[in-house]
Amino acid sequence: MTGTASLWQRYQDWLYYHEGLELYLDVSRMRFDDGFVGQMQPKFAKAFADMQALEAGAIANPDENRMVGHYWLRAPELAPSPTIRDEITDTLDRLDAFVSKVHSGAIASAGGHKFTDILSIGIGGSALGPQFVAEALAPNQPPLAIHFVDNTDPDGIERILAKASGGSALRDRLATTLVLVISKSGGTPETRNGMLEIQAAFQKAGLNYAPNFVAITCEDSALDRRATQESWLDRFPMFDWVGGRTSELSAVGLLAAALQGINIRAMLDGARQMDSATRIPDLKTNPAALLALAWYFAGNGKGEKDMVVLPYKDRLLLFSRYLQQLVMESLGKERDLDGNLVYQGIAVYGNKGSTDQHAYVQQLREGIPNFFATLIEVLEDGSADPIAVEDGSITSGDYLNGLLQGTRKALYDNQRDVIVITAARVNEQTVGALIALYERAVSFYASLVNVNAYHQPGVEAGKKAAAEILTLQKRVVSALQDAGEPLSIAELASQIGAIDQVETVYWILRHLAVNGRGPVLSGHLGQPGLLKATWQ
């Protein structure tokens, strides 16, 4: 066969199609051969067995002695106990009832007005999933408009409060804003800070915040207890057996989505259908296993190449950001399950096509071949009245399709591997299916490389380091207040027994000084060794 005929045959041999979801997965432009596939079969036999055990309720996160059950969220009947099944069903029923009453006005603001806005406060998986789904699926005129506080950045929070809609800033609509506070433990500092900032905004406006606040958290967490004590509007559970990065199809994501008018039952159905497909213990007919196979091949099982995700659809703009957490937090591990030093992980980045035709596709095509690409195609253009932009028949959607196919060919022709995922349209089923597909692919890949996909020691280490710096800040401020005279950075660090942290002391003072919070620095800003600090 000619090269073109050979590629066509390979495409047919390796194309996966899910009829119910109208979703295709094409790994034919990954250059693995039959020998590689044969070598991987024993690893996949173990991965299939690991997945079966996980779904049956095995302790899949040994570090925290936890089951991992996000798959049960869309198939409660598979949960290992009646208690878990009832928890899932009851939560969904309560959520449906709550949303229906908000939309009808039966649940209203303290002044009796319908809620107009949602302000979702969360970090990581409590923000990235809901943001992706809102961008992909929210109707043009949702029943409630959504806004996100997803960072402990005062300027960012101020910008959100100042965001105008219908001629008024959000801070002027707080009385009709429903605030969702999302934290599994209730102690996440970024979420706590956002909550306190928004509560202060309510108080500044002369409003009682409690009737507008909803907690999404674990039972009896610090946040759950606070919401109970302060008589918040409602509380919904986060389950101990669902991690943040796999929580979008729990109350974490479903409440916000339903309030925006998104059909969450269809999302769950799409995920359920994909879960069924990805339980099949056969490599070639299991789309998540095919993805994991492609990832393993591209990076030699060591993450040697980055994953570039380019969705050719504006609605899917945030999919790569969502996948960054799901893939990188799950797979980026220093040690494997046996304690060996392995430095595993796959870096993920991406924006969208065709924006990237005029951005970094140049490097992808001709620069360092340190990546494999995943292009996401949507067949339905979405225009009710398409116009011709060229030659009387070529539409904008035709151009988008041509650019995607052109990128695929240009990359492959220059020895760059490419995966293509094709969906008929962007709807609730499609989005649910994509979430489920990648959740399962991550689990399979983690088994292939023998890492724990469900813990995040690096994240915890960063939180601990931040807490230590804030403790040091309190000591710096106290010592400078007591000094009564200018001190050099080194003198101040020495006084508090932190001479080995003199650079950190400088960073703390610089931040406080620029914000007018007590310290005044004199001397040469570019030469910290000559600086002196005074409390004013």
Class derived from helix and strand content: alpha/beta
Largest sheet at a glance? 6 strands, mixed
What is the mean predicted local confidence, pLDDT? 95
What is the assembly state of the chains in this entry? Answer: single chain
Helical amount among residues, as a percent range? 40-55%
List unreliable stretches of 5+ residues.
none
Question: Total number of β-strand segments?
Answer: 22
Could you say which overall geometry the principal axes of the C-alpha atoms support?
A: globular
Radius of gyration (CA) equals 26 Å
Order of strands, main sheet, comes to 1-2-19-16-12-15
Distance between the termini: 82 Å
Helix segment tally: 17
Strand content: 15-25%
Task: Describe this entry's structure for a reader.
The protein is an alpha/beta fold. The protein is about 45% helix and about 15% strand. The protein has helices at about 5-15, 35-55, 80-105, 125-135, 155-160, 190-205, 220-230, 250-260, 265-280, 285-300, 320-330, 360-365, 395-415, 430-450, 455-485, 490-495, 500-515; strands spanning about 15-20, 25-30, 60, 65, 115-120, 145-150, 165, 170, 175-180, 215, 235, 305-310, 335, 340-345, 350, 370-380, 390, 395, 420-425, 485-490, 520, 530-535. The strands form 7 sheets. A 6-stranded mixed beta sheet has the order 1-2-19-16-12-15, with helices on both faces. Strands 6-5-9-10-11 form a 5-stranded parallel beta sheet, with helices on both faces. Strands 20-22-21 form a 3-stranded antiparallel beta sheet. A hairpin with a 3-residue loop joins strand 17 (about 390) and strand 18. Helix 4 (about 125-135) packs parallel to helix 8, helix 9 runs parallel beside helix 14 and helix 11 runs parallel beside helix 14. The longest helix has 27 residues, at about 455-485. The radius of gyration is 26 Å and the shape is globular. The model has no long low-confidence stretch (mean pLDDT about 95).
